[in-house]
Structures are given as structure tokens and as C-alpha cells.
Amino acid sequence: MSSSDLGERCSALTALRAFEANPEDVAAIDAAAIQALLGAAVRLYAARVERTGRFAGVEPGAIAATDALVAASALLKSVNVAPFELGLWDAWS
């Protein structure tokens, strides 16, 4: 692991702790740290699904539907995938 990877992971954990401590002050949390945290979570989830099969991404009721849709939409945009393409991919798998 390079020192930049370690720094990115520390920033991501710091962002998570800052949010947990004060969820109202999200604007003060570094955007790059949030991106690193989300990216790491997505890669971890995908690796687990590939190795062991599908499972719920979060416990039922752990997040609001709006939160899930905002995050899913941002993820799709960041990889240039349209919701229609997601539907096709899900039907094929």
C-alpha cells in the first residue's frame, strides 16, 4: 500500500467520523474524502458479491430511499451508465 493510499483511507475514515459526530455539518467534510469512502465501500461490496453471491447492501431501514437513490444516481453518472442500462444489466445477471 502506498502512502497516498493510506492517506486517502485515513481521510475517508476521518470524514465518516466527522459525519457521525455532526451530521448537520456535511459541507465542512472534504469532498475527496467522501468520494474515497464511497469508492472503497462500493469496491468492497462488489468484491464480496463476486466471491460469495448477492446480499443486501444495507440492512432494511438503515438508509432512506432518497439517500439510496441519490447515491445510486451519482454512482451511475460517475461511470457514465444510464438507469436504463442498469435495468438491462440487472435483467441479464
Order of helices and strands: HHHH
- Described by the principal axes of the CA atoms, the overall outline is globular
Portion of residues in helices?
55-70%
Counted by DSSP, the helix tally is: 4
Distance between the termini: 33 Å
Rounded mean pLDDT is: 88
Overall tally of structural domains: 2
Task: Write down how many β-strands occur, each being a DSSP E stretch of 2 or more residues.
Answer: 0
What is the rounded Rg? 15 Å
Which residues form runs of ≥5 with pLDDT under 50?
A: none
Q: Which band does the percent of strand residues land in? A: under 5%
Description:
This protein folds into two domains: 1-55, no CATH class; 60-93, no CATH class. Helix 1 (3-21) crosses helix 2. Helices cover 70% and strands 0% of the residues. The model has no long low-confidence stretch (mean pLDDT 88). It is globular. The protein is built from four helices and no strands. By secondary structure, the chain is an all-alpha fold.
